[in-house]
Design brief:
- The longest helix has 19 residues.
- The chain has about 375 residues and is α/β, with parallel strands linked by helices.
- The structure holds pyridoxal-5'-phosphate.
Length: about 375
């Protein structure tokens, strides 16, 4: 057993994508930002493509360039960039990476790059339909669309996509979902009237991919579901791909009344066995899991005892027989009875996205179920 390990089941990623692809007529863009939600950028991308994704999406341009550097030739979209990254975006365009444009300054940066390099940029225009995050505000949309139409006529850009993102798709039936779909259609009409008719209209994240076929348009953009975690309650036939585990570093018998870990927020109630686990908040174990995070030791479930430290946690396992080197699982698919990322999210008051994405670089990724 390795000291710490995130075991990534690539067949789960492949099958999760295949099942979403089978459930829609739209193309599937697997979102692999944030190091494939902690699962590993390139292996996650390859597994998603094997499952039938025809596109990959990243937040930042560096991630998209890393995919190209790894030899991945599938269409890529990257959507979050700042003025200081105009040069990176230029490189991305030269590497046949599509970039998102949400504002006039971004269009200007793209066209300036195009004039210098001679490449035509493939862009996806982003409309803010109600998330109020990235995307062009509705009042500014006609102007951005008109400027983009001009750049398209000049051969500087090709508008491959028009797209947007949901605020509330993880609450099926929420009234904003229908409103955002209507706002998206209205934005498409404005674009069409200006002569901008993209090949791809896309709006759906995982939740909408799984629950709102009326939002699929030409392409869906699932992220979290690719990794087997459902963003809404229900059985969607997904398999969680990540198991976070460690080898017990030290096991000791202690007396009743011992204070455990910093601040002694846990005290042994009786003579008991403490297991030291070499994972801490530097590895992505939330400090908020102190005294509440679920842990599975040799087939039984316990709770983190005392505070989560930077590199380690302690678990009081009572009279369970444990040896140094034995397997300790923080979360996995749940098929052996171990806690899941959802259990961790519930315990610490967050979402499973944060649990898997924060697993740090010290934790070795081990790939099973396919070639990374
Ligand atoms: C623009 C965009 N599209 C798609 C996704 C995928 O979302 P999810 O992981 O909820 O499927 C994200 C992730 O936050 C995103 O930022």
């Amino acid at each position: 057993m390795l000291r710490t390990e995130a075991v990534i089941d690539l067949s789960a990623i492949r099958d999760n994508v295949a099942s979403m692809a089978a459930g829609t007529a739209a193309e599937v863009m697997a979102v692999v930002k944030a190091d494939g939600y902690g699962h590993g950028l390139v292996p996650a991308a390859r597994a998603a493509l094997a499952g039938g994704a025809t596109w990959l999406g990243t937040a930042i341009v560096h991630e998209a360039l890393a995919l190209r550097a790894a030899g991945i030739t599938a269409p890529l979209l990257s959507w979050l960039w700042t003025p200081g990254e105009a040069e990176m975006v230029r490189r991305a365009i030269a590497a046949d990476i599509d970039v998102s444009v949400s504002s006039q300054w971004q269009l200007d940066a793209v066209t300036a790059g195009v004039r210098e390099s001679g490449y035509t940029a493939r862009v996806h225009l982003k409309i803010d339909t109600g998330l109020s995050r990235n995307g062009c505000y509705v009042d500014d949309w006609p102007e951005l669309v008109a400027a983009t139409a001009k750049a398209q006529a000049a051969g500087e850009v090709i508008v491959v996509g028009v797209w947007s993102h949901f605020a509330y798709a993880d609450e099926p039936g929420h009234p904003t979902i229908g409103k955002q779909i209507a706002a998206f259609r209205a934005a498409l009409d404005v674009a069409a009237r200006a002569g901008v008719e993209p090949q791809l209209r896309h709006l759906a994240n995982s939740a909408a991919t799984l629950t709102r076929p009326d939002a699929h348009f030409d392409l869906v953009r699932p992220g979290i579901a690719v990794y087997g975690l459902a963003p809404v309650a229900g059985d969607f036939g997904l398999t969680p791909a990540m198991t976070l585990r460690a080898a017990a570093a030290l096991v000791k018998r202690v007396r009743a009344g011992e204070g455990v870990s910093y601040g002694h927020e846990y005290t042994t109630a009786r003579d008991t066995t403490l297991v030291l686990v070499p994972l801490g908040y530097a590895d992505g174990v939330p400090r908020a899991a102190s005294n509440v995070g679920p842990v599975w030791v040799n087939g039984s479930r316990f709770t983190v005892s005392g505070r989560v430290c930077m590199d380690q946690i302690v678990v009081d396992v009572g009279d369970l027989s444990v040896s140094a080197g034995d397997e300790v699982v923080l979360f996995g698919p749940g098929s052996r009875g171990e806690p899941t990322a959802q259990d961790w999210a519930d315990a610490v008051g967050t979402i499973h996205y944060e649990i898997v994405t924060r697993v740090g670089p010290r934790v070795q990724r081990t790939y099973v179920g396919g070639t990374p």
